[in-house]
Amino acid sequence: MSATPAGRPDRVAVLCGVGGHLPRHRVGNDELAARLDTDDAWIRTRTGIRFRHLAAPHEATSDLAVAAGRRALANSGTARADAVVVATTTPDRSCPATAPLVAARLGLSGAAAFDIGAVCTGFVYALAAGAGLITSGVADRVLVIGADVYSRIVDPADRQNAVVFGDGAGAVVLRAGHADEPGALGSFDLGSDGDHEDMITVAAGGSRLPADPSRTSHTERHFAMRGKEVYRHALIRMTASARTVLDRSGLTVDDVDRFVPHQANLRILRTVATDLGLPADRCATHVERAGNTGAASIPLALTDDHANRLLRPGHQVLLTAFGGGLTWGSCLLTWPELPPAAAPAHHEQESSP
């Protein structure tokens, strides 16, 4: 493959569509406070979250992924894609992967399709995988989706986590293009540290410990996170990864027009922005209205920012995430000219249970 004078391949992945979807049922802090011995002020102070959306009993991760993927494809101007990559911690089944089903429901049967599991960093990993499919010539168009239904794995009585997590899906479409055009993906940084695998985990349900109620506890069958340690690691890893990407690109924080971190909670993303030297008004914050939606959080934030005209063609956009594994990753891209897109959250009235 030939390369540009700067050493970058002449065929790169270009973002050409976005879309997001949140379930209809929206849960406010007061509803949770009534059963979790807490209050709205406590939740807002520690997380910045006001609402989160929860999937209906009949909705699975694939349902949310299909809705977001369909919107992203429509926004891109075509329903065609050669590959579908789904980042999720909550697949419909442990076997098979969710992506082939999503592809089939979108009319993309025959396309390459696979899942990526990197927890909350999943979308950045999936974006890198999609870009690799394009730069290698395997695909010309790739649909990348982040989708999670955390309400299936979080114990609703868990005061620490039930207030933080929500369900949702976000997607982008990538196409083959050139490094100098708007929408081009730039440098990536990806990393992991498996020595801390138990910091964010669902202990039971895999080959190490099957989810047999006779052999496992209620706690082992649900999501667990050591919050204070996660907070410390997230700040260190997200900040360092973002700086690495800037260094590789020959840019500084002054060149960043929009910072879109994983929407873990408001304290983390604002602290990372501050540590990087970025003002608060350059930081995307979708977490207040959706909670932590795992792999869906970055594409949902991108869709929300685009819908609200906070992203403009030519903007340098910095993405960064941290999740279980431990995993982390960052990416830079130049924002393209896109058709208008609907904001992922559009249900104004709070739902009742």
Automatic annotation (TrEMBL):
Enzyme Commission no: 2.3.1.180
Main location: cytoplasm
CDD domains named among the record's database cross-references: KAS_III
NCBIfam families assigned: fabH (TIGR00747), PRK09352.1 (NF006829)
Free-text function comment from the UniProt entry: Catalyzes the condensation reaction of fatty acid synthesis by the addition to an acyl acceptor of two carbons from malonyl-ACP. Catalyzes the first condensation reaction which initiates fatty acid synthesis and may therefore play a role in governing the total rate of fatty acid production. Possesses both acetoacetyl-ACP synthase and acetyl transacylase activities. Its substrate specificity determines the biosynthesis of branched-chain and/or straight-chain of fatty acids.
Subunit-level organization: Homodimer.
The protein's name: Beta-ketoacyl-[acyl-carrier-protein] synthase III
Designated gene of the protein: fabH
